[in-house]
Amino acid sequence: MKLRADQTGNHGLPMPLWLQGALESAQAAIISALVVVLPLIGVWATDGFQNHTVDFLARLAGQAWLLVHGVPLQLATVNMGTAGLPGSGILSLIPLGLTLVPFLLAWRAGRRLARASYTDQLWQAFFGALLVYGAFGAATGFVCRTQDVVINIWFAALLPLIPFGLGMVVGARRESGSWSRLIGVDAVDWLARTSQHSRWAGSYFGSAIKAGFVAIMAALTLSATLLAVDLVIHWTDIIAVYEGLKAGALGGGVLTIAQLGYLPNLAVFALAWSSGAGFSLGIGSHVGPLGTAVGPLPAIPVFGALPTGQLDFGTAALALPVIAGVLAGWWFLRAGENHFDEWLSIKIKARWFTAPVSTLILGALIGAVAGALAGGLAWLARGSAGIGRLTEIGPDPRWTAVWIAAEVGIGVVIGYWVGPWLERRQKLREADLDDSVYDGDRR
Questions:
Q1: Does a structural domain hold residue 435?
Q2: Same domain? 176 vs 310
Q3: Does residue 300 sit within a domain?
Q4: Are 186 and 209 in a shared domain?
């Protein structure tokens, strides 16, 4: 990018990288703000708010932008007596679906900055981008705080840098193609200087971490599918809530956008539900595969899809994380190297002992990785609505991690044991297919 370009062929001076990073981050901040502002303008223009002033609309949009970036909002005038239960008054339930907007914008900015920088100069562009984005967040928090909504300026300046900085790093890595080109460190050369035992251990643990990622992604996919099926089954109940609200076309559209913003949160809720840990929708409530016990809920259409009462087939959902573990164990058999099993078989000659022990340890390791990732997702997806009982929404990270770790570990043991049989069947099918093609060519 240049500071000036004309038709004479003189392209001017090259733009400093820190300035290019600042412009990219400013562009991302403005676009992400527009994504939040435009639906609110529609509601405001149709008298959807009691306060019709422009100042109220601007502050509300800024507060929503900060919430999308993970900044908690202290609601100072929350009525805690409506349900007779204490509450923190903190709005911290992050719409992870809308958080993808600044993440993707940062991903684009990271690719562009990596394309314009040399390996040892990328930090300049990143420094300018993060500085401007943090200043934008701090300014938004300072301008949009009111007596009713208290905003910590430090949180407003630093927390938006997490999704934005992560998006830039992922985008720059995608553009550069390798970490060595991105940060100037040759990982292959560094590994070559380590001992053979260290490389074997690193390969084993690295494959286990990848298998744990495969397990949690498979479990999350299966849970999201279960959520989609549940929404289809309870579609009439959801429509009934929409009709009861009488929000109109524009209000219903904005409400739908807000619910789509929380769709990743709901997928994590479904993951916790299918694991058996369940989740809460208010203090003292619990939604799990064995039954649902919740108090009064606000009229939000998606709540119409909650499974109620005793569920006859709820325990069948516990098989989803186990199936994800089976896939992870099979993946490890195909792509990983069980160096621990090799080392153990060298030390102890009794194969009847080393094979089960190494497989159980592998299941425990992959299950622990999947559980830690599930706990992290549960921590991100949960939060507080800051109103009455709704100060505790979402799954418990610790119990979710424990349940997922145990179920995925069981599935890994099964998948690693049945994997060779599945591999033989696949090879036999491929051989039969090759033979049929060969016979067809001969004819």
A1: yes
A2: no
A3: yes
A4: no
Domain that holds residue 86: 17-190
The pTM score is: 0.86
**SS3 assignment for the chain:** CECCCCCCCCCCCECCHHHHHHHHHHHHHHHHHHHHHHHHHHHHHCCCCCCCCHHHHHHHHHHHHHHHCCCCEEECCCCCCCCCCCCCCEECCCCHHHHHHHHHHHHHHHHHHHHHCCHHHHHHHHHHHHHHHHHHHHHHHHHHCCCCEECCHHHHHHCCHHHHHHHHHHHHHHHHCCHHHHHCCCHHHHHHCCCHHHHHHHHHHHHHHHHHHHHHHHHHHHHHHHHHHHHHHCHHHHHHHHHHHCCHHHHHHHHHHHHHHCHHHHHHHHHHHHHCCCEEECCCCEEECCEEECCCCCCCHHHHHCCCECCCCHHHHHHHHHHHHHHHHHHHHHHCCCHHHHHHHHHCCCHHHHHHHHHHHHHHHHHHHHHHHHHHHHHHHCECCCCCCCCCEECCHHHHHHHHHHHHHHHHHHHHHHHHHHHHHHHHHHHHHHHHHHHHHHC
Can you give the pLDDT of all 443 residues of the chain as single tens digits? 444 444 444 554 567 888 999 999 999 999 999 999 988 888 887 777 777 888 899 999 999 999 999 999 998 754 444 444 444 588 999 999 999 999 999 999 999 988 887 767 888 889 999 999 999 999 999 999 988 899 999 999 999 999 999 999 999 888 877 666 666 655 556 555 666 667 777 788 888 999 999 999 999 999 999 999 999 998 999 999 888 888 777 888 888 888 999 999 999 999 999 999 999 998 888 888 887 888 888 888 898 888 876 777 778 889 999 999 999 999 998 887 777 777 788 888 887 788 888 889 999 999 999 999 999 999 999 999 888 788 889 999 999 999 999 999 999 999 988 877 766 666 556 555 555 544 555 55
